[in-house]
Structures are given as C-alpha cells and as structure tokens.
Amino acid sequence: MPTEYTPLITTVRVAPHRQRYPHNVFRRFCTIAISSTLIYFFAAYLVLLFAEPIHIPDHISWSGHGRSKVSYDELRQIILDTPSREKAREWSKYYTSGAHLAGKNYSQAAWTRDKWEEFGVKSDIVAYDVYINYPKDHRLALLEKKGEDEASSSWKVAFEASLVEDVLDKDPTSGLKESIPTFHGYSASGNVTGPLVYVNYGTFQDFEDLRKANISLGGKMAIARYGGIFRGLKVKRAQELGMLGVIIYTDPGDDGELTEEKGVKPYPDGPARQASSVQRGSVQFLSFAPGDPTTPGYPSKPGVPRAPVDAAIPSIPSIPISYLDALPILKALNGHGPKAKDFNQYWTRNTGLKYKGIEYNIGPTPDDVVVNLYNEQEYTTTPLWNVIGVINGTIPDEVIIVGNHRDAWIAGGAGDPNSGSAVINEVIRSFGEALKLGWKPLRTVVFASWDGEEYGLIGSTEWVEEYLPWLDKANVAYVNIDVGASGRHFKASAAPLLNEIIYAATGAVKSPNQTTAGQSVLDVWGGKISTMGSGSDFTAFQDFAGIPSIDIGFNPYPEDAVYHYHSNYDSFAWMEKFGDPEFVCHQTIAQILGLITAHLVDVPVIPFSAKAYTDALDRYVEQVEDKLDSALSPHANELDISSLSEEDITSIRGSHRLTSQLSTNQTHNHDHDDGTPSAASFKKALRSLHHKISHLSKKAKSLDTQAKALAEAINHIDELPWWKFPKIIRLIFAIRSVNTKYKLLERSFLYSEGLDGRPWFKHVVFAPGLWTGYAGAVFPGLVESIDASDWANALRWVDIIGVCVERAGRGI
Ligand SMILES: *[C@@H]1O[C@H](CO)[C@@H](O)[C@H](O)[C@H]1NC(C)=O
Ligand SMILES: *[C@@H]1O[C@H](CO)[C@@H](O)[C@H](O)[C@H]1NC(C)=O
Ligand SMILES: *[C@@H]1O[C@H](CO)[C@@H](O)[C@H](O)[C@H]1NC(C)=O
Ligand SMILES: *[C@@H]1O[C@H](CO)[C@@H](O)[C@H](O)[C@H]1NC(C)=O
Ligand SMILES: *[C@@H]1O[C@H](CO)[C@@H](O)[C@H](O)[C@H]1NC(C)=O
Ligand SMILES: *[C@@H]1O[C@H](CO)[C@@H](O)[C@H](O)[C@H]1NC(C)=O
Ligand SMILES: [Zn+2]
C-alpha cells in the first residue's frame, strides 16, 4: 500500500499557477490537512478495490508519488519540443541496419530496453515461446511437356523464377548478406505441381466468380495478385476449394499513377516500384485468430499445452513473387480459358501488365503446362521478446498502453515497423525529459515494443492473453503505431470513444505538408477515422479484451512514392530518398502520438466521448439496414465500382455471400412455416435495436455532460477554500466514478462465446472482416449471418447486441 500517497489533488496543476492566497503557510497547512484526509479515504478505497486478487505484471505497481512538478501544459510543450528529426533518423538507421525477423534478434530487444532505461523509463524484456516458421528452401518453375507421344515426351523447364530481389548499388540494405529470403510466414511446406489458374485478388467473391464460370479449381495451382484482403485468406479459400498451392504477386497496376508503364522511373532512380520487389508476409488465417496458433486464448509460456494448428494456418504451400517473376508465368495463361474482361468489373481494374503482353486469361493452363512450387519451411517453437517499459502513475488502476512492433520481414523495415519504432523512442524520450523535470503521471503508462507482429500479432496477443485479468480491470486505452511514416497522408482508425482525442492531438500539430504551411495535420487530413479491423497489434486489445484502441500513421498519398511494403526496398535508403527524406513525418507523428498519450495519461477526467460511441452504433445499425436492402435488391451486382472507395470494394469482394443463395430465401416477407424468421421480421428487430441504442445514447449524453462539469470543477479546485474539503472529496469521488464508467464502457460489448466459428474474437461491434482480414467489419456476427442468409442467426445476433447495449446502459 502507498504510504506517501498524494491523491488526485495533484491535479490542481492543470490550472495555471496563481498566487491568490496571501497566507501561504496557512494554505500549506490546509493542503496537508486535506491530503491526509484523502490519503485515509483512498487507502480504504484501494484496499476494497484490490481486495480480490488480480494478476498484475511484476514490473507494475500502484505505488504513489509526490506531487508533479510539471503541469499538463508544460508536459504538452515538452512533448511538442522534444522529438527531433536527427534522433528519429538515428533510431531508424539503427533498427534497419540488420535482420530482425521475429525471435531472431535478441540484441535489438536488449538495445531497445537499454535505450528506454537511458531515457528514464524502467523497462524489461518479456519473452514467450512461440510456434513459427523460418524459410529453408524454395523453388518456383514453369514446366512444359515437349515431344510427340507419351513415351518420348519429357518435362522441360520453361521458366525458373529467381525468387530474389535485385541488389541495388544505391541501396546498401538490398545487398546485406543476412537479408531474409522471400517467403510467407506460416506457409506450409510442400512440393506441388499442377496447371495454373489466375484468381484475380483471390477474394471470396473472386473465387465465387470462378465457380460460377465453371472454372476447374481442384488440383490446380492459383496465381493471385496482392491487394484488397489479407493474403492468408486468399490461401485459405484456395485451400478450401481443393487447390494445390498459391503464388501471390504484386501487380504494378495497383500502384496508381506512379508506374513504369506511365513513364515513371522505378526505385532507386525514381518513385515507381522496383520490378523485382517482393511482398513477404504472413498467411496465417488472421481473421479467425491471431497470436501463436498453438495457444489460442492463453499465453505461450514454456511448457504450456499446445493445440493442433490445422484450423489456424494453411495446409497448402504458398509463395510471394515479384511482377518480374510473375510475367512469364502469367504469359503462360495467355490464350487459355476466359479473359478477365469476360468477367465483371472487379477483374479488369488495375490490370497493370497488359503493356507487357499479359492478357489476364483465367486458365487453367492445359495439362502440359504446369507450375511447380517447392517450399521447405522449418517449424520450431522459439522465444520471442517484447520490451515493456513502465512509468508508474498515481492512480493505480488506470493504465494507458502505447505500442509498436519491432520485428520486420526484411533487414530494413524503415517504414514497417521501424518508422514507428523510431517514433515511439522519441515519445519515450520526451516523457523521459518530463520525468527529469519532476513530472508525475496521473495514470500509469506502459510502453511496448512487440516482437512477432508480422507472423500474426504474436507478441502483443500473448501478452494481452497473459495479463487479461489485470488489463480488464485497469486498462483505459491502447494506442498503436505500426508504420509511422511511409508517405505524407495521415491515417487513423479508432474506437469511437477516442475520436475526440485524435482530433485534439492532430489539431495541435503542424502539418508536414510543405505546401500548406501553418495548417494543422487535422486541417490537411480532413478527419476520417476508420473502424478497427486487424493487421496490427491493437487487435488483441480491441477485439479480445474490449479495450478502446487507436492506430495512427502517415501513409502514401497517390502522388507519393510507391511504398515497397515488406520488400528489401523498405529500407533506410528508400526512406531517406523518397519516404520521409527530412524525417519530418517521423517528428510530426511523434508529436501526435505523444500528445494523445499525454491527454490520456494526465487529464483528470478521462477524455472519452460516450456519445460518439452511441452515435457510431446507430450509424452501424443503419449500415446493416442498407446492406439488407441492397442484398434484397435485384440489382445488387450492378454497382458502378468507379464511384466506390478501395475500402468499399474490399468489403464487397470480401463478403462471403454465396452467389447461389442470392434471391432464394430473402425476398419472403413472412416467417417461414418452420419458424425461420423472414427478412421482414428481421427488419423489425433492427428497429428495436435502434430504440435500445437511443436509450443508451441519452445516458451517454448525460455522462459526457457530467464529465465536462467535473473537468471544469477540478480545474478550479484551488479556488475552493480549505474548509470546503468535503466538497473536494465528493468531487474526487465523482471523477473516480465517471472515469470507471468510461474505462469499462467498451468492455460491455464483449460476448464471452465470441463470434461464430472464431470464438477468440469477443467484441460484438468490431472485428476484422471474416474474409477481408485487414478491414474492419461492424457488427460482424450480424453481418456474417446476413451474408449467409441465415436469418435465425441474424436475429440471435441482434439479441446479443441488444443485451450488450443494455449492459452498457446499466454500466453508465
Ligand atoms: C540485430 O539488429 C541489429 C540492429 O538492427 C543489427 O545491427 C544486427 O546485425 C542484427 N543481428 C542479427 C543477428 O541479425
Ligand atoms: C519436387 O517435385 C518435382 C516435380 O515432381 C520434382 O522434380 C522435384 O525433384 C521435387 N523437389 C524436391 C526437392 O523434392
Ligand atoms: C456451368 O455448368 C452448369 C452445369 O454443368 C451449366 O448449367 C452452366 O451453364 C455452366 N456455366 C457456364 C458459365 O458455363
Ligand atoms: C513501480 O512501483 C513499484 C513499487 O513501488 C516498484 O517496485 C516498481 O519498480 C515501480 N516500477 C516502475 C517502472 O517504476
Ligand atoms: C498538401 O495539401 C494540399 C492541400 O490540402 C493537398 O492538395 C496536397 O495533395 C498535399 N500534398 C502533399 C504532398 O501532402
Ligand atoms: C432457404 O430456406 C430453406 C427453407 O426455409 C432453408 O432450409 C434453407 O437453409 C434456406 N437457405 C439459406 C441459404 O438460408
Ligand atoms: Zn507492421
């Protein structure tokens, strides 16, 4: 228990210091009197609070501190002034100087820990034993049968893919001896040979289109282009349809205007894609469960039981290739089967290799033209290392977590993830400066450098699984930064509770866009915040633990240089020449991340907006209603995609509505004889959900109003005479109560059974789309039931959501 606990009265620092009391000695006496009373109350309160045992990480405690010597305004100034371009550049240079694949670079974890300690933040390495693969050998070749008859014919190698990225004189990283081979994380080993089929982006609907056209898929090899959905889901669907293996290439058509076809020079001389660049990446079935696939739902500690992995990772081999390697393979399809243009508009968009003679035929190739894919992966259970830094706060059970992953697919990783690593270092250095000046945070801050993100968000997922009971009680918010800078376009996704905090921070930081001097990041960005999907370390916090999360970063504008994602050319040299030459985006995003953190940590009343959440819930129900109407419309497939955003296209193509089920059951307006509900009764249920949400919305509004009043009152607390200390105590308890309501609001939306077929995902509002992976789906259980025309289950989900909404209402 804290002995020198100075309670929330430390928050007087938010008000500018004013010398209004002439009797300083008397005033100090009063402060001491109030403080001791509060210590008594709080000690009693905390004893109650922690009476039940909670598993708290060893390195974190609730010990109190003295009064902070740094006001909130001073803290903000430190956070704006400290991050430097030179330092960010220095950290970037360090992290990108050698390989740091998950579980392969302990010294980089130790270096990170030591740096954070040097900045003044107590840090430890937290290890897990996880099941992952490392590449051993691979081969991809196009084989053709030559000769007249069976007896004299033999297979000839028509093309042998290089499977390496070119070594460029102007990019030293590309020539590193320890550079990492091109491979897929969690890819299966195997040696498969078969005729080839082009499957477009490999989305669920692409495969449906192929089935509808009677293209034979079983026993064939797939070639898919990157884009749209998470790559593992391309492999998953191919596997389900009996395909042998999957080749995934990067089509320059998806790079927009900056392509060689349009006369733009490729990297390293220009901003277009280097033709030999390869996107490595994980093919885990991310939307089914992230983390170590052998320990779903519990931490991968040494010696724990291990589950079978069949449902979580592919059983067929896959390999990523460059478009240079893809050309001869795609060319082999020319003249075989229908063409992309015989299909719908989703097949003809961004076909960027026509000028190289590729006709984008679907295939399959005839039996005497086959592809051989040989993949040898070493699977092992091996330690990986998170670095966890902690600054103890004054309030024991209100914790803010800020994280970035450190592992990369390549020796470089200047964008992904080490622009984020450089940035988080600058943020920690900034808070370290504040600590040196005597700053005492109100809430505890935990900084995390995750390992194993790339394979499947492993380091963060295992850590959340281990500390779930504590996080459930204490974690107020999680803030993620993955790719901090790969272009100049600010991007954010967040739980709606946190939207206002992002607006406040981005409104206070100058935009790095040189043409708009004086404008804030918010002015230039415009304020669109996406819903939480998956694809980075916020997933376990948001979707499993119900902790409201934020993910921010600078991404490329269409006119920014092509970002060589997961390729050797995501290097320091690329960053310095094209990505963020002055490291100004690094500096800007460090300021934003720092301000968001400071806001969450040091403002007495947790700055959430419950109303923003209920407004969003209402909108999401409307989206479901729209979806329902368009599913019932006979023109559902006649959208003009040129008017759709990339996100909309992804969500349409990643929906798992089976084409054959369309227009069968949906149009009935009466419940079926067997009791199956109809679309009409389902619509009625949605209306009642609106009703529940509007009830919650009223309570949310009054909570926000109360919070505002309390924030105002605490700002003026030092205007109260000492003999009003009972009022002060009441105020502090009121703040405590509001803060607890805000803290736990997001948890109301957890459903312990989880989503259908993917029980790890507990959140009823947010999850990655089942067949998109990255993109966020809202009300996933409900939407997936509609996709499957399973109205009974859709009704069940409306009920589950309704129960959560009511629970949230009772909680606030
Ligand atoms: C580990 O990372 C550091 C810093 O990036 C690098 O210098 C070193 O070569 C890496 N070690 C290995 C074994 O790859
Ligand atoms: C893989 O299969 C091909 C074709 O069947 C065969 O020629 C090759 O030797 C096999 N490679 C390995 C490493 O087993
Ligand atoms: C696919 O096969 C079915 C049944 O064999 C046939 O009715 C249908 O017309 C075929 N579709 C196409 C596009 O060839
Ligand atoms: C937090 O406080 C506890 C108990 O006083 C101490 O053991 C721990 O080292 C502190 N942690 C940090 C990161 O300061
Ligand atoms: C800079 O801002 C202007 C005005 O908002 C915008 O049109 C332009 O695309 C931005 N350019 C860059 C490189 O950020
Ligand atoms: C369509 O309705 C029938 C009978 O009501 C039911 O058995 C079948 O599962 C439904 N199909 C779908 C796709 O929901
Ligand atoms: Zn990343």
UniProtKB/TrEMBL annotation:
InterPro entries membership: PA_dom_sf (IPR046450), PA_domain (IPR003137), Peptidase_M28 (IPR007484), Peptidase_M28B (IPR039373), TFR-like_dimer_dom (IPR007365), TFR-like_dimer_dom_sf (IPR036757)
Location of the PA domain: 192-282
Keywords attached to this entry: Membrane, Transmembrane, Transmembrane helix
CDD domains in the record: M28_PSMA_like, PA_GCPII_like
Chain segments annotated as transmembrane: 29-51
Keyword Transmembrane: yes
Domain Peptidase M28 span(s) in chain numbering: 386-573
Segments for region (Disordered): 255-275
Superkingdom, natural source: Eukaryota
Chain coiled-coil ranges: none
Pfam families on file: PA, Peptidase_M28, TFR_dimer
Molecular-function GO terms, alphabetical: carboxypeptidase activity
Family the entry assigns: Belongs to the peptidase M28 family. M28B subfamily.
This protein's name: Glutamate carboxypeptidase
UniProt organism field: Rhypophila decipiens
Record lineage: Eukaryota, Fungi, Dikarya, Ascomycota, Pezizomycotina
